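Sanity check. The docking grid for S-adenosylmethionine depends on where the pocket ends up, so I'm generating a full predicted complex first rather than guessing from homology. Inputs follow.
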Amino acid sequence: MLINNKDISVYIHWPYCLKKCPYCDFNSHISKSKIESQEWEKSYKSEINMEQNLLGHRNVKSVFFGGGTPSLMPTYLIESILNQLAKKWTFSSSVEITMEANPSSVEINNFKSLYETGVNRLSLGFQSLNNNSLNFLGRNHTAQDSFKALEIAKRYFNRISFDLIYGLPNQNEKKWEEELKEAINLAEEHMSAYQLTIEKGTPFYASYRDGKFSLPEEEILLNLYNLTDDLLNSAKLEKYEISNYAIKGSECIHNLDIWQGSEYCGIGPGAHGRIIVNKKWYATQKFSAPNIWLSKFLKEKSSFYEKIEISNKTRAKEILLTGLRLRKGVNIKKLFDNLNIRQKDLIIDENEYYKFNKLGLIETFNNMLRITNKGVPILNHIINKIIL
Ligand SMILES: C[S@@+](CC[C@H](N)C(=O)[O-])C[C@H]1O[C@@H](n2cnc3c(N)ncnc32)[C@H](O)[C@@H]1O
Ligand code: SF4
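Predicted complex below; grid placement will be based on this.
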């Protein structure tokens, strides 16, 4: 599972959006000048070539176009990126190709051609089914746009997910329950529900700090989280990660593989990767600013900002960090065997582990180390304490 040196997941980052949402701290921008898509095509293709030179032969198990708003990419560019990947590597017969899409009219009209490029999974950014909440979130679409987007998406895609954000000002159990019930009626095989986080450097950060809005109290947030779990689970959308729910077998292959520690290659501005070269793990990162990324390629044929070797111990900690957010947890024996780690206590603070274990917040069963349902509300605290 962890090191087979053959399968690879590929993440492609498109950094542009029509509008910057006030809560968002992703590497997303509004383009100040005309986007020269041929230059972008050239750069994406060169970056794929460069990664292939480094990694050699690989089998692409999944591709994930994220952003920004990658559904705004010209179709020929998506096609060209996928062709280049297929030229340099092989594609697994069941390759999952996901695209994040906003439910705006520009993109809805593009769904058919998107499907024709080979994209076979759509992740729609609904964020809310309530127009007041969408307004608060600064979105430039309405709930009706989302319904329309879903209706059209269903004509072409068998695999559809959508994102919702909860924990908004004035949101209580009753309002969230109504929204969730509506979401369940709409849901296909997958849904993500994220609690609003106030990220440093965003307009929301300043407004929240200045008291322009307040968020629900901790106790209500916990109720909203538990409600999400209960309602979605009873609709057979089972939680497989702290914010992700799917019908059994319909989990996002790309994210699940990455969270479990697979190799992945990040292409595009700011994209991260974790790759193995000559049996050593490397963390890679590309230049974040779109123009720097582009000019690095056009001028110097290189876009790496960082490519640093990471020890197996560091990699094990990273995998624990994401793996413990999974419902099934992490196979600790496999993890340590694969990374050749002999001493568990170099990675996990055993005293802290036993403290949380006694309280029923973390457990190990058949080598699977996992946070229990009772532990989930303080998951970050437990993870911070037990990983050394
Ligand atoms: C890369 S982002 C956005 C993709 C797409 N451009 C969109 O806006 O729908 C992926 C998801 O992260 C979630 N997200 C982004 N910022 C967030 C925040 N501050 N708090 C909670 N969820 C957030 C949103 O649900 C979003 O759909
Ligand atoms: S939430 Fe999506 S659309 Fe809004 S700025 Fe972030 S990436 Fe762009």
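Relevant for the grid: Residues 17, 23-24, 26, 66-67, 69, 100, 102, 125, 127, 163, 165, 194, 196-197, 199 surround S-adenosylmethionine (ligand 1) (CB under 6 Å).
Also worth noting: The chain has 15 helices and 15 strands.
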